[in-house]
Specification:
Blueprint (H helix, E strand, L loop, with lengths): L1 E6 L40 E3 L22 H4 L11 H14 L4 E6 L9 H9 L2 E7 L2 H5 L10 E3 L21 E7 L8 H10 L1 E10 L18 H15 L5 E5 L23 E6 L3 E6 L13 H19 L4 H16 L9 H17 L5 E2 L5 E2 L2 E16 L2 E16 L9 E4 L19 H7 L4 E4 L16 E2 L3 H9 L25 H8 L4 E2 L2 H19 L3 E6 L3 H10 L4 E7 L41 E4 L9 E4 L14 E5 L9 H10 L4 E5 L18 H14 L1
Parallel strand pairs: 1-8, 3-4, 3-6, 4-5, 6-7, 15-16, 15-19, 19-20, 20-23, 23-24
Antiparallel strand pairs: 2-8, 9-10, 11-12, 13-14, 14-16, 17-18, 21-22
């Protein structure tokens, strides 16, 4: 068994650097024969030293393998990164090593694979002749689909090895019979949070006499690498990975040195990346998949180096900042502006780079498509390096003139109009816009940014090509309130903490103790809480007035849009979404209800007694047969609670009246794990299903998203949740 150490340039001869498949066999996929030929390279030796275990027993704890970003890896790697994470001379050196180490018959597993495997021509020819099969598991199907070593989709699978059972074979139905002669894994072992189990399973899947080759480098996504990795020096990392293999049961583990050497066989750098040979040239590398910066072209060691040139130095400073931001989280708008500045500087200073290949520019175009939402400006960056902001418009809609007495004077005023902001992406790709409706005490800014400064859902959906409408409810925020129109009410800091930000400290419902995703402490005095609380505004205390005004305003907005739109309604606004859908079913493409007001007919947790006589609303929605005046024809029954963590539900007595207009609209209800809605949202879902509405209930805990509260679209994993909603919208 061998553990390649690190990769360096040995001045290979690149007489024929790329080969197109078209002259060989058109049935072979793109990227199959693309690469460096081994035959023309200077012969090389690969010094190896035996690994010597330091410990008698497995010395590590679970805390050694936690990561800063524990969110689903499938989301992080969703965007294809058509880039090699080590540079060309390093790839050439690794390819040479593979030519001496990999079998030419049997089966190879390429673990944590992507669009390139760096296999030599001899291996690829063996694959083409049928004597060798290569299987692969990775996290991005688009990348694996263009990797020709797999000879088609039957031999690669999307598989997250950080989830049980941590076994590459489980990706195939008959996986337990698969046995491999060798396994390769390039610069990915440091991302595994259960590497011991993975290595044990690999041993079970390896034939007698087989081997595994784990290539490591000091490059990484720091938010995804395991905690202990960032605490170790280079030599200790080698021993760390050696421990994985040793305690998993592998024998004869070796550390193979693939460092770059000059023509005399001498190392060209030391372990700290310092250049020992003056013959090494400067080049360009990709850093962290965010931006292009200048760095030493030294193989797997990619250290940021400061240059005398002021412009180059600025690029490197921003790249270092980007590395810190990715590790510590995005905190300020300035962070995004710095990234944008680095991007623009790269575009204007391309002559500083020795070469930018077509492949790299293709990757850069891919990167910028998802960099845009991180910039905080909802920008689109096109292939020419131009930053195109979204089109921003605002208008007021709805409203009516009324004669009101203010003081001793009666005069005409406009009431119930709402402020609406329309954001149109520079490159719209979606046919149906999104209409966001905020909840109690909030305004349309709720969906713009999170309290800790990260991009909000508006930015996310803009970046996916949706036109977005944000609004302030009547008598809320920028939508004016006039005296004599109901009573205004506000929420205290204590109530906000109990309901939204620090629910685990109060445990007013069973699920509250699971709340972990709110950024910061969630208590007054914490800067993130203070930013959130500062955005809370007064709201209409009378539910009947509020529902009447909002139903009129949002139907007016739908009329102005003129075509079908998706409604995304949160909390209190759930009822307004139902009313808008009921009044304009032909203008509503779907409704996404984020923990909508409920449950039917009664108040729970923060409220008690009768509520919502029409089941889901205070005021009339269309039933067939009719619900009658004030819903007096609806007969109800009580359904006992499912368990101690759930409330009982009030349903219709059978035969149930049908919500004939809402039945025409697909509905997604989203419920978090730790919110007070986790107690009773199932009642709302089951009631609507009984009334004929097509409702899908997305429980975030069932999606692998844990610890969220009622304001989940602001919490730490908010964009991961947005990905789930996006997938549903794109199906409807």
């Amino acid at each position: 068994m061998s553990l390649p150490r690190y990769l360096r340039n040995i001045k290979p001869n690149f007489a024929t650097p790329w080969r197109a498949y078209s002259s060989l066999n058109r049935s072979i996929p793109f990227n199959f024969f693309a690469g460096y030929t081994v035959a023309n390279m200077t012969s090389a030796t690969f010094p190896a030293t035996p690994y010597a275990p330091t410990y008698d027993n497995w010395p590590y704890t679970d805390s050694d393998f936690v990561r800063y970003d524990e969110n689903d890896d499938g989301v992080f790697y969703r965007q294809p990164r058509l880039v090699t994470h080590i540079d060309d001379p390093s790839i050439a050196r690794l390819t040479q090593y593979y030519d001496t180490a990999l079998p030419k018959t049997g089966r190879i597993m390429d673990m944590c694979t992507s669009w390139k495997s760096f296999y030599p021509l001899s291996v690829k020819e063996a694959i083409q002749k049928g004597g060798l099969e290569v299987y692969g598991v990775g996290l991005n199907e688009e990348e694996m689909a263009v990797n020709g070593v797999f000879q088609g989709p039957a031999r690669w699978r999307v598989l997250d090895l950080n989830k049980p059972p941590h076994d590459v074979r489980t990706a195939w139905e008959n996986g337990q019979i698969l046995q491999f002669d060798a396994t390769t894994c390039v610069v990915s072992i440091d991302y595994l949070n259960n590497p011991l189990e993975v290595c044990k399973k690999l041993l079970e899947a390896t034939k007698e006499g087989g081997n595994v080759h784990l290539v490591i480098s000091n490059r990484c996504f720091p938010n995804k690498v395991v905690r202990r990795w960032m605490m170790l020096d280079e030599r200790s990392r080698l021993e760390f990975v050696g421990d994985y293999l040793h305690f998993a049961g592998w024998k004869d583990v070796q550390i193979v040195d693939l460092c770059a050497r000059d023509e005399n066989g001498m190392r060209v750098t030391d372990d700290q990346g310092t250049v020992l040979s003056p013959k090494i040239k400067m080049g360009n590398v990709w850093v962290f998949g965010i931006l292009v910066v200048l760095s030493l072209r030294l193989g797997a060691y990619m250290y940021f180096q400061r240059r005398r040139n002021v412009r180059e130095k600025r690029i490197l400073e921003i790249a270092e900042d980007a590395r810190a931001y990715q590790r510590d989280g995005w905190a300020r708008r300035k962070d995004y502006e710095d990234l944008l500045a680095a991007y623009n500087l790269f575009r204007s200073q391309q002559h500083l780079l020795q070469s930018v290949t077509d492949l790299e520019m293709l990757f850069f175009s891919n990167v910028t498509s998802w960099l845009a939402p991180l910039l905080g400006a909802n920008s689109w960056i096109n292939g020419f390096g131009e930053v195109l902001p979204p089109q921003r418009e605002f208008f007021y809609v709805g409203g009516e003139y009324q004669n009101l007495s203010v003081g001793n004077t009666t005069a005409q005023y406009m009431v119930n109009q709402i402020y609406v902001e329309k954001l149109t992406p520079a490159k719209p790709t979606q046919d149906y816009p999104l209409v966001f409706m905020h909840g109690t005490g909030q305004t349309g800014t709720t969906f713009l940014d999170t309290p800790d400064g990260r991009p909000g859902w508006a930015s996310f959906f803009l970046s996916h090509g949706y036109t977005v409408y944000l609004s302030d409810q009547p008598s809320r925020g920028r939508s004016p309130w006039l005296p004599n129109t109901g009573t205004m009410k506000s929420s205290s800091t204590a109530l906000i903490e109990q309901l939204f930000t620090s629910t685990s400290s109060h445990s007013l419902w069973p699920q509250a103790r699971s709340h972990t995703q709110w950024p910061g402490t969630g208590k007054a005095g914490d800067p993130i809480f203070d930013a959130f609380y500062a955005a809370q505004v007064q709201y209409q205390a009378d539910n009947l007035i509020s529902e009447t005004e909002n139903a009129k305003a949002y139907t007016a907005l739908l009329d102005k849009i003129g075509g079908p739109a998706h409604i995304i309604a949160h909390s209190q606004a759930g009822a307004y979404g139902w009313r808008a859908g009921d009044l304009r079913p032909h203008l509503v493409k779907s409704i996404v209800a984020l923990e909508p007001a409920g449950p039917p007919f009664i108040g729970r947790i923060f409220g008690s007694g009768p509520a919502r006589p029409f089941g889901i609303t205070e005021l009339e929605v269309a039933y067939e047969p009719s619900a009658g005046p004030n819903a007096t024809y609806i007969q109800t029954v009580v359904v006992p609670a499912r368990d101690v963590n759930s409330s009982e539900c009030i349903m219709q007595d059978e035969p149930a009246k049908q919500l004939v207009n809402l039945a025409q609209i697909p509905v997604l209800t989203v419920t978090s794990e730790a919110s007070y809605h986790a107690v009773y949202d199932h009642c709302t879902v089951e009631y609507m299903r009984q009334a004929g509405v097509n409702v899908e209930h997305m429980k975030l805990r069932n999606e692998g998203l844990h610890g969220n509260g009622h304001m989940f679209f602001m919490e730490r994993n908010s964009l991961e949740i947005a990905e789930k909603v996006l997938a549903w919208l794109q199906r409807h």
